Amino acid sequence: MLKMMTGSLPTSTSLFLRPFTTSLSGKNLGVSISSVMANSGEPKESFGFLINKPYNPPSWALHLHPIPSQIFSLAHLPTPIHRWNLPNLPKSIDLWIKRDDLSGMQLSGNKVRKLEFLMAEAISHGADCIITIGGIQSNHCRATAVAAKYLNLDCYLILRTSKILVDKDPGLTGNLLVERLVGAHVELVSKEEYSKFGSQALTNLLKERLISQGRKPYVIPVGGSNSLGTWGYIEGIREIEEQLHIAPSMAFEDIVVACGSGGTLAGLSLGSWLSKMKAKVHGFSVCDDPDYFYNYVQDLLDGMHAGVSSRDIVDIQDSKGLGYAMNTTEELEFVKEVAAATGVVLDPVYSGKAAFQMLKDMSDNPAKWEGRKVLFIHTGGLLGLYDKNEQIAPTMANWRRMDIAESVPTKEGIGKMF
Asked: What stretches of 35-103 adopt beta strand conformation (E)?
């Protein structure tokens, strides 16, 4: 077995962090940090990917503080924008979609924009491993595990699961498959432990353990949502502005996005407010309640010295339904209907719920939306559908055994590849 560049690590246990580490340990065969960086911040030969380079903010964001000094190019940008003819969309509404689900492959979704700033800081701090935390099917944790491996860093994931499953192998469904394939170290906690101790205490506990082993960990909060990560969607607004240059007559009046940890919502709302776009941002929360997110976004804005109230720049509505990562049959049927009608596959945890509630609000409050140009941000999360296969299977009736009449002529030698 190949020895990892950072050295082999002992497996340790604690009272409520239960490690599940993939058995495959190997040297990163991708691009190492040293090979993608030079003294100038960019190598002599570069294709613009996996590059740590100086960050230059938009002119309208220069007053924010602190301004990141570096950014690591991890995403495939710009992501496309196209018209989105949702089923039952009111005819007076001009709806478009920005496909941040196409920001990469294993790194797809909104999380990669935040990670471009967070990973750059981790590298600048001399980190040799990354710690983050989330739900058992966290898109952020999957994206972080892949980004860390791209940069030759170890990754430690604290994943929240049920009390019944916390002492069992978590399996290989959805995001877990990718995380474990890339060698992430998975540590399980129960929902009760997560609620009792909180994410910060849990990540600090793991951080202290790794430091005692001689490691240099860098901690990324839930969803990558802190003031530094918020810059990911300030950049996202600049990207939208640049895309609109080719269609100067187009101006989005509303931006809609799912809200799960608050960082994406904070970046979009602040960026839209400061830039010439001035679109009204609508966040549909898939966990907690609107008041929680107004306060959380405010904390992020204050951390950037933005000098603005969250309630003045964003509208937040509750769309969690049965609860975080829990779906009604109606919500899953909506995801299926949208895919069949438009080819766009929504995830069931974030964008699926946000789009479902957006359409409901458009129907219930037509005066609020009538005649508006609306941009929906698809934040990714396709792998989350794999965790819903049993629940969604009964709605999938589009198959049959092919009828082949006896009169159809046969020919010897056909199909030998089978």
From this structure: 52-54, 70-72, 81-83, 94-99
Number of helices (H) and strands (E), helices first, in the chain?
14, 13
Active-site residue set: 138
**Residue 283 φ/ψ, nearest 5 degrees:** -105, 130
Tell me the domains of the chain and their CATH numbers: 66-108+226-381 (3.40.50.1100), 128-215 (3.40.50.1100)
Cβ atoms within 10 Å, residue 192:
13
Question: Nearest-CA neighbor of 358 among 260, 288, 292, 282?
Answer: 282
Q: Distance between CA atoms of 363 and 359, rounded to whole angstroms?
A: 6
- Asked if pLDDT for residue 18 goes beyond 70, the answer is no
Sequence-separated contacts (24+) of 392-396 with Cβ below 8 Å: 392/332, 392/335, 392/336, 395/329, 395/332, 395/333, 395/336, 396/336
Asked if 20 and 12 touch (Cβ cutoff 8 Å), the reply is: no
Confidence of residue 8 (pLDDT cuts 50, 70, 90): very low
Q: In 3-state terms, what secondary structure has residue 96? A: strand
C-alpha 317, offset from chain centre: 20
In order, the DSSP letters of 289-329 are: -HHHHHHHHHHHHHHTT----HHHHEEEEE--TTSTT---H
In whole angstroms, give the CA distance from residue 14 to residue 164.
18
Q: Which two tokens stand for residue 307?
A: 């000098």
pTM: 0.88
